[in-house]
Design brief:
Blueprint: H1 2-29, H2 59-63, H3 77-97, H4 101-123, H5 128-141, H6 149-158, H7 160-169, H8 176-214, H9 227-251
Bound molecules: zinc ion.
């Protein structure tokens, strides 16, 4: 029995890394307006078409010594780290839900969030197509996440509406993409888990911004991309929101 589980975890890691490899293509192509479905992968430096042997997640990068086979330009280590992350996230989702549709749904959600987080980090925008992808996951996950319609509607509005209103007082205080992402994920997770996710996002983003300001790496006027923190918070909230909430309330004896 144990051998089967080890095999399954290895299998899930490999599938996760392969899908993350595709997500790298999305992260690179979507902001440039290049179709993610059409055309073979090519080296961004020499434009040489890449063959299957160059595209094996993680292993190609190791065997090629982190360089393009044709022009020897460095392949960003981030691409490979994201493939490792994809494998690990796949294993985490499998660990959390086991052989269940939620494993697949939570993993797809995680991969979309990785794409959103990385594109927001690179370009400070979140493509609408990825928000729509989150909306599709919300619809597909509907029968598997036990929430009332009211929980979902409140989730849709509880954070997005105040953020939207804040933008009237301080223009561009929040990115439009962030607001849309939070609204859609509120619909999926319900308001309680959305608040757990936002709490995690704010604590981590706030600590990081505080560190940057104290070390004079940025000043108050600089924007930091909030998207990656929101994505992290929302994913944790989906998987372990309930446990974290109980833990938090337990600290106050509730
Ligand atoms: Zn090249």
């Amino acid at each position: 029995m144990e051998a089967i589980f080890i095999f399954l975890y290895v299998y899930v890691f490999v599938v996760g890394a392969c899908i993350a490899s595709f997500i790298n293509v999305v992260i690179y192509r979507l902001p440039l307006g290049i179709s993610v479905a059409k055309g073979r992968s090519f080296c961004p430096t020499c434009q040489h078409q890449l063959h299957a042997i160059d595209l094996i997640p993680i292993l190609s990068w190791i065997t090629l010594g982190g360089k393009c086979r044709y022009c020897k330009a460095k392949i960003p280590v981030r691409d490979t780290l994201l493939e490792v992350l994809g494998g690990l996230l796949g294993m985490l989702c499998f660990y959390r839900y086991g052989i269940n549709w939620m494993t697949l749904i939570s993993f797809v959600f995680a991969m979309i969030l990785v794409a959103i987080g990385m594109i927001d980090l690179d370009t400070m925008t979140i493509p609408n197509s990825l928000i729509i992808a989150c909306l599709i996951v919300t619809v597909i996950s509907y029968p598997f996440i036990d929430l009332s319609i009211m929980d979902r509607i409140i989730g849709f509005l509880i954070v997005s509406l105040p953020m939207y209103a804040m933008n009237y007082i301080i223009p561009d205080c929040f990115g439009g993409g962030d607001i849309k992402l939070i609204a859609v994920c509120g619909l999926m997770l319900g308001w309680v888990h959305l608040l757990v996710g936002m709490f995690i996002a704010i604590v981590i983003a706030g600590s990081y911004a505080g560190y940057l300001m104290l070390s004079h790496k940025v000043d108050k006027k600089d924007h930091i991309a909030f998207g990656p923190y929101i994505c992290f918070g929302l994913f944790v909230a989906l998987l372990y929101g309930e446990n974290l909430l109980q833990l938090y309330l337990g600290m106050f004896g509730l």
